Every structure is written in C-alpha cells, then in structure tokens.
C-alpha cells in the first residue's frame, strides 16, 4: 500500500525543530556520494516548466525520492507536484507526498540554517525581506526558531502582499516595517532574504553595507539572478552544491567560475570553511535545493505517519495473489 500525504497531514508531521535538526545533520554528514544528484528541467509551450529532481539519497536511510514538479510562476502555488518515496531495496512506492509543501518547507528551513550561520555577529537580527511570498514567510519562520529577530523590513512589488506578511510577523511578536524598494530594505538591514522571480538583478554593490549577509533564494534556475554579477564577485559566495550552482544556479548565471565560490554550506557547518575572514565581508548564500533534502523530510513524515496511522492508504498495483484469484 502507498501512503498519500497532503499538506494538511504534512503540517502536523513536520514540525520546524525536527526538520531543522534533520536538515543540519544531512548537511554535516553529507548525502550519499554516488550517484550525483540531478535536476532535469524542460520548458513547456506554456508559462511554466516541468522539473524532475533525482535521486534523494542519504546514508542510513533505506529509501530514496524522485520529485516531479510543475513550476508556473504566475500560479498560486507556483509549484505543484509530488514526491515519490521508494523503498531502496525493492523499489516499492512507499508514499506520495505533496511537493508544494515539502519543497517550500525544506527550502525555507535550509535557507534559515544558512542565514543563521552566515549572518553577522550573534545579536538579534535586523532582517530585510525582499519578496513577501510563501517562501520568504517559511524562511522567516525557520530563522525565528534559530535566532532572535529584532525587526523585519519588507518590500514586495505588490504592496498588499508585503502588508499581509508584515501583519503576520507582527502577530508573531516581531516589529515590522514596509519599505518602498529593494535598495531601501538593504540600507536598513544587516541581513537580507531575497525570494523573488527575478527578471533582472535587484541589488548591486552600492546597495549593500559592509558586513551584510544575503540569502538569495530566487537564483535557482539558469538565467535567474537577484544580485548583480559585480556584487557576487565582491562577496564571499556560498552554495549548497558547486556543480548544480554552475549548471542551474547563481554561479553559472553570474558567470562565476567554480573556484570563485568561497565554499558550501556543508563546509561552513562543519567548520572546514570560515563564514567570514573579516567583519566587513559581504556574504551570500545561493542555494538551488538538493534532492536529499526532500528525502530527509519525506522519510521523517512517512515514519511518523506510520506510527500515528495518519494519511490515506492507496493501492496502485494489484498483488500477485489478487492477479491469480479466480
């Protein structure tokens, strides 16, 4: 039987604390070294694309994931699809999970981990948010579980969306202000999260104060870039995977060479690479998202759902005994 898990079940099965610990362990201990993760993207004769991420693998987890997404920026949600959780021993389809929820949650929490480790100092953050959609909201939610946030300064091309996000954060006890532009957000913040569908870069070198950290979530496909190449060259740039950042992410889109990245988030979390060499360093984290992150959350949700007997069981294929029945 295959377990079907939608957003309602996953909200209960994937609390932030458990997911943050699982994702940090995945970064520190590393995904299975082989085979290398792949992202397959196909443009469609429509305002969107199809994407497959294979295969999500982690040491010690007897399962793997394949994710199939439809990505339509003008829709809400922009990502729709499923994550297939298979038994690694025989290929059985253990579970189908709502990809929209898992993708947004693991992206937001992984971004929160990177932001927490790369942001300046250890004092409460003055956080700038550019792009006030679902992804930014989940990143703030994860970051608030890791580090105090003194104030949020938010901007969105749709002022109403920024206003609604600000109201949510105020109800959570965080002081929040709206700004009229991305540059104004940067001028008033020590840490930035950008989560947009960029048609052109939003921020340049002159917009960013010394010592600022930027987590850029919008540069996750070829040609998408929220920061100018000049700013990327000026900063200490960290990614989640060098090869994918070259083919599908910010390094390739900015025209940077692999050795121009300061390192990966794994290197920072393990202490192999310093987050900063000087207090004035500008740091940038540009993740593309990795298949093992889907597995980390999917496996946790599946095992907990088994214990709690939640979700819907569905049989896609008949058993041999049923086939042979008269």
Domain count: the total is: 2
Computed CA radius of gyration, to the nearest angstrom: 20 Å
Shape, please?
Answer: globular
Number of helices: 12
Structural class by sheet pairing and helices: alpha/beta
Query: Alpha-carbon distance between the termini?
Result: 22 Å
Our estimate of the beta-strand percent is 15-25%
CATH superfamily of the largest domain: NAD(P)-binding Rossmann-like Domain
- CATH hierarchy: architecture of the largest domain: 3-Layer(aba) Sandwich
Average pLDDT reading: 90
What ranges have pLDDT less than 50 throughout 5 or more consecutive residues?
Answer: 321-326
Largest sheet: 8 strands, parallel
How are the strands ordered across the major sheet?
9-8-7-10-11-14-12-13
CATH class of the largest domain: Alpha Beta
| Named CATH topology of the largest domain | Rossmann fold
Roughly how much helix do the residues carry, as a percent range? Answer: 25-40%
The overall strand count is 15
Question: Secondary-structure element sequence?
Answer: EHHEEEEEHEHEHEHEEHEHHEHEHEH
Protein name: Ornithine cyclodeaminase family protein
Pfam family, one: OCD_Mu_crystall
Organism: Streptomyces bathyalis
